[in-house]
């Protein structure tokens, strides 16, 4: 719980509130315009009727008999997000208990007690998100639930004292306050828990940003992220950051950051990329424009690590994901001049990640060239000779590595503005396994990941700019 010590108007919060008052057409089409329903005067007659019935029964010290239609409207948002994530009623009780204790179910658009904002009084300075995100009830609820699940692995939050769970997630200066509000939270829940609606309030359904011929003919999912427009300073990658077996979207920005160093943001795949798992500065200083990034579990701790090849191709750094990228695992000199893309993969099947370095442009042969460094030798010696493929080198060609055909051997995926080709790793990259036409332009970036867990790689197409929502939008084309 936070004690109100005065308020300072946040310009970002005011702008966010203005955006809520004028939702996009896609947002208006959702079952609930979540942020708008938490604004003063947005509650319905049904909300006010529920508040009237509950008022004599409320016993808590924070909200109690002051429950209003607006309180119920904000509670509906929280409960709706819980339902749409497929979580049971207990998750809603925990979230409602927290919001009652922290904000009395008011979506505070101005700072309360230091920089606390929103329904859950989350603080930007503590890594919960940006101010404009924390005053969005959908984002705030997702952020709370993500933290709860992360701090209570294996669904251990399903048992134990509700107040203690709230405290562990929030780390409040008043730990005993939560337990007094559990009764009221359960009472409100009994009136607003309904059938699960059809779509997440924070999810828009844009049309796929691409047209395709070949394996990727159907969009199996679409989403608008909470990321603003992206540009050439951002590197994108898909990785399972939180171990939930769902790919998450990692965004690395090496230049032009607030902190002056390299920063990382990770969007939650299980939350349809609408909520933030991590937003942090790293141990790395500012990057150079041509630095090359990749992601892989270098040290076998089941946490993705960040790999950075300096633009001259002479220095490689690997940053520990388990430390939230605050510690170097390896810093070494390598001979990878002219390399445009790097990707970690166990190339020789020895159980250690090797580094696949790809020259996609500017090669003497005019073809895509591939060199593999041995992970068991700390990347100090090559695994065989450099392979010159039959694929033409070209500016803008992206390369990644995945086991495309399930033969336990890494294959090379080349994505251009016009299509995709996969080269067989077992055949020394001399023959294609598949190809597809996927028409994109400079606004898009295509990544390969098994989005739906069917064992087949899908194509994740990110439209970085020029979207109707003003945010980066994603289309997943099924493989």
Automatic annotation (TrEMBL):
UniProt entry tagged with the keyword Signal: yes
Transmembrane among keywords: no
Key words, A-Z: Signal
PANTHER family associated with the record: MAM DOMAIN-CONTAINING PROTEIN, SENSOR KINASE-RELATED
Protein name (database record): Repeat domain-containing protein
Leader sequence segment: 1-28
InterPro entries assigned to the protein according to its UniProt record, in alphabetical order: FG-GAP, Integrin_alpha_N, TAT_signal
Highest taxon above the source species: Bacteria
Residues forming coiled coils: none
Transmembrane segments: none
